[in-house]
Design brief:
There is one protein chain. The protein is of the alpha+beta class. The chain contains 2 helices and 2 strands. Strands 1-2 form a two-stranded antiparallel ribbon. A hairpin with an 8-residue loop joins β1 and β2. α1 runs antiparallel to α2. The two termini are 18 Å apart.
Length: 71
């Protein structure tokens, strides 16, 4: 969660992150993780364009930190 937390802090947001599912096919090292992300700001209402930009930052950060593939 560290890469995601960093993006939230950089954008002045409050973080609520909850894994919704973790799946690993038997005999593989690959895991599929699903998360519920909540975007919250105590300063303003976030526009959909702002959320899209933040999601791009989250994806980039997670890919760089753990080599994740977003599907």
């Amino acid at each position: 969660t560290e890469p995601i937390s960093r993006v939230y802090k950089e954008n002045g947001l409050m973080l609520e992150l909850a894994p919704t599912s973790i799946y690993q096919k038997e005999g593989t090292k690959t895991k599929n993780l699903s998360f519920h992300l909540r975007f919250m700001s105590d300063k303003k209402t976030l526009a959909s364009s702002e959320i899209s930009d933040i999601m791009e930052q989250v994806e980039k950060s997670v890919k760089e930190a753990v080599g994740a593939e977003i599907v």
